[in-house]
TrEMBL record:
Residue ranges with Basic residues bias: 189-200, 223-242, 256-266
The organism of origin for this protein: Musa troglodytarum
Gene3D superfamilies named in the record: FAS1 domain
Name of the molecule in the record: Fasciclin-like arabinogalactan protein
Location relative to the cell: Cell membrane
Pfam family, one: Fasciclin
CC annotations in GO: plasma membrane; side of membrane
Extent of Low complexity compositional bias: 178-188, 243-255
Family as reported in the entry's similarity comment: Belongs to the fasciclin-like AGP family.
Length: 292
């Protein structure tokens, strides 16, 4: 009994130690920047370009944030959303750089990869950022393809969660001709209503409806255009329904557009048997009546 109590005490100590251990928590860049009005525009376009979710899903990240005035210069270029995404992705580094680490760079400079580089849209090394720690304590950032544009300067640290996320303010937007290049929209299927064949069938259908509206019930050479039009617009499933709804070979078309199905084989056999039994009785005469 005396040995049981030390074991219980040790188990309780282990549970308390596990409960008091720090738990790694995810970050939310939208909430981090929400309380800072000077980054409201930057925060908004991180959401519009879906880069906020990209930042939140990564375990280690560094964001080079730009204030509203810097974003105004970028928006004045009237870039598309896809191009704007590439420019902002250049400001997301895939490694952790806090304010202290910026001043402890080996050799005074380093080359950091960005989300723009890892996206596959940056050819060569255009998605890398050159970080330089100058002697006077000034730290600058420049894209590899800056084209001679002056680098941007480190202003201050906004938020640091060591080895998880670091939000650093920089003076302005990084210059990168490759990131600002126009981006072609992703390949999409051409709208079926704009297809030349669809337009031709639509015109034929309109002409056919106009003839019917004015009382012209002559045989229309394009009477099947409505079927082809819907099969073209709705694909194999709609075509299958049209095929299933089409009259069966040999079926009689009754009034009102309804189909009168053929008699069943058993009824056909019974009818043939009655005709054979009463060869002289006219068709349709009541049973029991004699022939002529």
């Amino acid at each position: 009994m005396r040995r049981v109590f030390p074991l219980l005490a040790a188990s309780l100590l282990l549970l308390l130690a596990a409960a008091s251990a720090p738990v790694a928590q995810g970050h939310n860049i939208t909430k981090i920047l929400a309380g800072i009005p000077e980054f409201s525009t930057f925060n908004h376009y991180l959401t519009v370009t879906h880069l906020a979710s990209e930042i939140n899903r990564r375990l280690t990240i560094t964001l080079l944030a730009v204030d509203n005035s810097g974003m105004a210069d970028l928006l004045a270029k009237h870039l598309s959303v896809l191009t704007l995404r590439n420019v902002l992705a250049l400001h997301i580094l895939t490694d952790y750089y806090g304010a202290k680490k910026l001043h402890q760079l080996t050799g005074g400079s380093t080359l950091a990869s960005s989300v723009f580089q890892s996206s596959g849209h940056a050819p060569g090394t255009t998605g890398y950022i050159n970080i330089t720690d100058h002697r006077a304590g000034k730290v600058t950032f420049a894209a590899e393809d800056s084209g001679g544009a002056p680098p941007v300067s480190f202003v201050k640290s906004v938020k640091e969660m060591p080895y998880n996320i670091s939000v650093l303010q920089v003076s302005t937007i990084l210059s990168s001709p490759e990131a600002e290049a126009p981006v072609a929209a992703p390949a999409r299927q051409q709208r079926r209503r704009q297809h030349p064949r669809h337009r031709r069938l639509q015109q034929e259908l309109q002409l056919h409806r106009a003839d019917r509206r004015h009382g012209h019930h002559a045989e229309d050479p394009h009477r099947h255009c409505h079927h082809h039009l819907h099969s073209h617009r709705s694909g194999p499933r709609r075509r299958l329904r049209h095929q299933q709804g089409a009259p069966a070979p040999g079926a009689v078309q009754a009034r009102g557009g309804r189909r009168r199905p053929l008699p069943r084989p058993r009824r056909i056999q019974e009818g043939q048997a009655r005709v054979a039994a009463h060869p002289g009785r006219p068709r349709g005469s009541p049973r029991g009546s004699g022939g002529v």
